Amino acid sequence: MLSDNSYIENLLIQAKQIYDETVISKILDKADKLEGLSHEEVAQLLVCEDEKHIARIFEIAHKIKNHIYGNRIVLFAPLYVSDYCVNQCAYCNYNHNHGFERRKLTMEQVREEVVILEKMGHKRLALEAGEDEENCSIEFILECLDTIYKMKTENGEIRRVNVNIAATTVENYKKLKAAGIGTYILFQETYHRPTYDKVHIAGPKKDYDYHITAFDRAMEAGIDDVGGGVLFGLHDPYFDVLALMLHNEYLEKKFGVGFHTVSIPRICKADGAIDSAYEYALDDKSFLKIAAILRIAIPFTGMIISTRESPEMRKKLIHAGVSQISGGSSTGVRGYSTPDNSTKQFEINDDRKASDIIEWLIDENMIPSFCTACYRNGRTGDRFMSLAKSGNIKNVCLPNALMTLCEYSCDYGNAEFQKKADTIIEKELSNIENEEVRILTAENIKKIKNGQRDLFI
Ligand code: SF4
Ligand code: SF4
Prior knowledge:
Blueprint: H1 5-17, H2 21-32, H3 39-47, H4 51-69, E1 72-82, E2 88-89, H5 107-119, E3 124-129, H6 138-150, E4 160-164, H7 170-178, E5 184-185, H8 193-199, E6 200-202, H9 208-212, H10 214-220, E7 226-229, H11 237-255, E8 261-263, H12 284-297, E9 302-305, H13 311-319, E10 324-326, H14 354-363, E11 367-369, H15 373-376, H16 381-389, H17 394-412, H18 415-429, H19 435-449
Helix pairs in contact: 1-3, 1-11, 2-4, 3-11, 3-12, 4-12, 5-6, 17-18, 17-19
Bound molecules: iron/sulfur cluster (2 copies).
């Protein structure tokens, strides 16, 4: 069903034909109980244009966001290690035909970039690279991971590296697993086979079937957490949302666990991209509706947005259910150490410094979190999902968010920031329901203020 495009197209046609107010209400009642939705139910919501139902979709998305993720936002930053790429993807600046001098980081340069990221307070990275076996082999990626994980600067260390590299073999995924990656992230870009074929002009990524089965190989290799996504704007977004849902259901059925995260990038200007790729560009209103539908359909899957979105949109998307954002990002190789010279994969629309984003979150009454605890406590894959589905995840997310914010505040905040952080930490401590955990968190916060680091539960 997943790669049967006519099944999805028919589903959307039927959803319009059988549109029924009572059915929509029942679907929303189900979502309201945090039961998630099937792809058929999502199809019904996607075609729904009734403002009162759409308002309820947002209401439930907001409620789910608060119930499961609270007011915490997990922060991460991308680290581009190589822009060599043999593929010709029409929407990407790194496509092989775009003539610019390609670069990959030396290990010394990896360290330089990571020092800067650590100084921003980051603990969680997404390692990014184009596809080029010759110039950017799996051994190079492993060396980068090893370098990053071994680094420890005065206050900084990267505790989790998610990896976003091209679809590869079971053998290579095993190597990534052994290197201790967090989530393996790969976007299908679009699930619509003819569009996929059109926008992937040449290169190994053109092989739709190899790309769409990458998570099967990653999970066979033992990687527990995989993160999917599409690039909205390449094809009919409703089609791609349904395909994402089907992919999630497929993985749940086959491996017992679906996507750990879903990323929702929207197409934006990239210097070397080809303009015809923007036919289905999504307006803000429809994009927000899609984010909210995804939030209520897969309530326990983290939702990620990047700095492609403006600060205003990021704020709205957070309220619609997004749980992870990047901050202070650069989308180019050596982008942190030599920002002016970097050739970027795509343009960003939120160019605020990480510290400004962190302060902005607090001003918006949200808790910036640098937590990486689950991965380090072995809470991955189905172990993570069962904790999430039982509702008990919040008993660890909130304490960890507060402890990591306290670390950040002590290590990187000035007096004014520390005051702000202390106020929100104090207030949020009382929201930890479990008394034992609340006491432990308060004790840990004292220890952090006294110089201890890396405390988590
Ligand atoms: Fe290469 Fe990825 Fe860009 Fe395609 S999207 S050109 S594979 S870097
Ligand atoms: Fe993520 Fe786990 Fe930390 Fe919660 S406790 S923020 S789920 S790593």
